[in-house]
Amino acid sequence: MYPITLNLKNKPVLIIGGGKIAARKIKGLLGEGADMTVISPILHKDIKQEMITWIQKEYEASDIRPQYQLIFACTDNNSLNEQILSDALPSQLVNVVSNKEKSDFYNMSMIKHKGIKIGITTEGASPKVTKETRIKLQEWLNKNEE
Ligand SMILES: C[C@@]1(CC(=O)O)C2=NC(=C\c3[nH]c(c(CCC(=O)O)c3CC(=O)O)Cc3[nH]c(c(CC(=O)O)c3CCC(=O)O)/C=C3\N/C(=C\2)[C@@H](CCC(=O)O)[C@]3(C)CC(=O)O)/[C@H]1CCC(=O)O
Ligand SMILES: NC(=O)c1ccc[n+]([C@@H]2O[C@H](COP(=O)([O-])OP(=O)(O)OC[C@H]3O[C@@H](n4cnc5c(N)ncnc54)[C@H](O)[C@@H]3O)[C@@H](O)[C@H]2O)c1
């Protein structure tokens, strides 16, 4: 997979599902100034409703508008998340939170340290190993700080 960092300021980003995992993704995306639309019957308490456009309903294929370049399928229903992936246009990139093999892209585990960002990924193979590595590396950086 090809690593890049994206400038998402004012870019329209679509999230389907508004639960715990969506809340984590939305926090990071709002921090980067993305223009967020969330489609979900229910919103997690950590999602700041006033910062997003919330469309309170269940997903339908017509929700996939061409202006979205990034789409996050964050429902707790893996077959629905996979349906979202197949409804998307070939030009749209879809993150499927419930399937290690099928995503067009993954979020990396991030460390921010003294003005640099370190991204860690197993390219979907093992989120658990990613998290463990982030914790070990963070401890090493803290220990070896001048
Ligand atoms: C890095 C991080 C970024 C982020 O999500 O922002 C991320 N997962 C994180 C946390 C986390 N993930 C999980 C737990 C609970 C368990 C635990 O603690 O172990 C926690 C902890 C928590 O939720 O607190 C389990 C889990 N994760 C995925 C599945 C589904 C599956 O495996 O198919 C399941 C099992 C679900 C189940 O079976 O129930 C899937 C994905 N998770 C990824 C990324 C992508 C691949 C990354 C890579 O390639 O390495 C991928 C494929 C899709 C994506 O999301 O992009 C983030 C910060 C980590 C940190 O640094 O703390
Ligand atoms: N990527 C990761 O880091 C990670 C970590 C743990 C779990 N997971 C996976 O992510 C999935 C979601 O986890 P969660 O904790 O956020 O679940 P959750 O139950 O907190 O949230 C699910 C959300 O999906 C919404 N939803 C359900 N059906 C919908 C529909 N038809 N249309 C639109 N929205 C719909 C619900 O309203 C809710 O807001 C889990 O099932 C698991 O497979 C991923």
From TrEMBL:
One of its GO terms (molecular function) is precorrin-2 dehydrogenase activity. Transmembrane segments: none annotated. It is an enzyme of class 1 (oxidoreductase). Keywords: NAD, Oxidoreductase, Porphyrin biosynthesis. It catalyses: precorrin-2 + NAD(+) = sirohydrochlorin + NADH + 2 H(+). Gene3D superfamilies: NAD(P)-binding Rossmann-like Domain. One of its GO terms (biological process) is siroheme biosynthetic process. Pathway: Porphyrin-containing compound metabolism; siroheme biosynthesis; sirohydrochlorin from precorrin-2: step 1/1. Its EC number is 1.3.1.76. PANTHER family: SIROHEME BIOSYNTHESIS PROTEIN MET8. NCBIfam families: cysG_Nterm (TIGR01470). This is precorrin-2 dehydrogenase. It comes from Vagococcus hydrophili.
